[in-house]
Every structure is written in C-alpha cells, then in structure tokens.
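In response to reviewer comment 3 from the previous cycle, which asked for concrete evidence that the modeling workflow produces usable outputs, we include below a single protein chain processed end to end. The sequence was submitted unchanged, and the resulting structure tokens are shown without manual editing.
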Amino acid sequence: MAPALLLVPAALASFILAFGTGVEFVRFTSLRPLLGGIPESGSPDARQGWLAALKDRSVLASLAWDLGLLLLFVGQHSLMATETVKAWTSQYFGVLQRSLYVACTALALQLVMRYWEPVPRGPVLWEARAEPWATWVPLLCFVLHVISWLLIFSILLVFDYAELMGLKQVYYHVLGLGEPLALKSPRALRLFSHLRHPVCVELLTVLWVVPTLGTDRLLLALLLTLYLGLAHGLDQQDLRYLRAQLQRKLHLLSRPQDGETE
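The workflow returned the following structure tokens.
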C-alpha cells in the first residue's frame, strides 16, 4: 500500500483529469454541434444518400474508426467495472481502485474525443435548415442541453460526487475511517449494483436533441444509447429508495444540519 502522502496527490490527479475530461465532453457533445466548430455535416450538395454512403469507402472508413473508438471506451468502462477486475485492481492499488477506474475512463473518453472523425459527406437523419426552424430549433436545443447538464451536475452531487470520483475513499483511508461503502445501507448498495449511470435520461437528451443529426453523430447517439440502456436496471424498490433519498436531501438543504448519507 502506498504511503498516505502519495495517495492524496494520486486521487487529486485522477479527479482533475476526470473534471477536465467532463468539461471537454460538454464541448464535444453540446457546444460543437450547437455553436459551430467542426461541422456535423457538409453542405447539402456534398452529402450523399444512405445507399450511396454505404458504397463510399471514405465514409465507411471514418465510421469504422469512430465505431472502434466507441467500442474501446465501452469495453474499458464495462471491463473495469466487473467484480473480477475490481478485485484485482483493489489487490494491487488498494484504496486507489476507484481513482484508477475514473482515470482510465477519462483517458478512454479523451481518445474518443480527440481522434473522432466527422463524416461531412455522409447523409443526415434530420436538419433544421428552413426558417423559422433554422433559428428556433438550435435555440431550443441549446436550452434543453443547458437544463440537461445542470440536472446532470445536480444528480452527481446527490449521488456523492466525491465518492464517485474516488476522493472520499482516500480521505476516509487517511483518517482511518474505513471504506465509505461500508457505511451505506443495504438499500443504497442494492441501488448502486443496479445503477451505473444515474444520468441516463439527461445524457440521452444531450445525444439526440441536436439541430442536425449527421452520420457520425447518429453512430455516437445509437451506440451510447444502447450502452446506457443495457446498464440501466432499476426496479420499483430502487425508485422508492431514490425518491426517499431525494426528499431527505431536500429536507437537509432546507434545514442545515450535520448528518451522514445512508
């Protein structure tokens, strides 16, 4: 086990990497398609139909490359979340297991964003071109994206952001308080085992609600939607627990007092 003085910088470095990657992900998924930058699709005259795109090697090569990047991210994010890998990383990295998972996820997502290849000559599923849609649809999409990201950040705070990022585990270890999950109730542990992505609906809104849905964006939205759907396994008991926790959080915010989340 690394000395305590080395654990804190390692956990902080992982957190800073994850935070920076999150900011970049907002730019990649929202600011780029809504405010410009790398075009989501080319000019109407340069685009092809769906059948023609399937015969264009340049389009297929770009889509295959993007698919490979997405599979790399999904594979890393899923494999490192398995009990076998978590047990192995806990054995060799100890309390830094969660920080390692967060850092590897951030690096995999960075690869996706930095090496993503747009397909400007590919077909589009929809596009707001004619007025007044060309003005109002991007504005509506922008508002929905802002609301979605605010909800995402709020939900992450409710779900104990410090613990999700691996900071709380190191903090508790340095102070000799044990493992934070050991203090969670059985209902909370059950919820965590079913819910790996607490911001599913909001992320789907960000992925799909865009003024122009080009070929590469469609690939991104489809694959991540499938992945989010497969990782989402809540039942009525989990939903009742979530509702109770939300009410408890709101009560604590209205009446500030010391207390530990169940």
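Confidence is low (pLDDT under 50) at residues 37-43. We consider this sufficient to address the reviewer's concern, and the full set will be provided in the supplementary archive.
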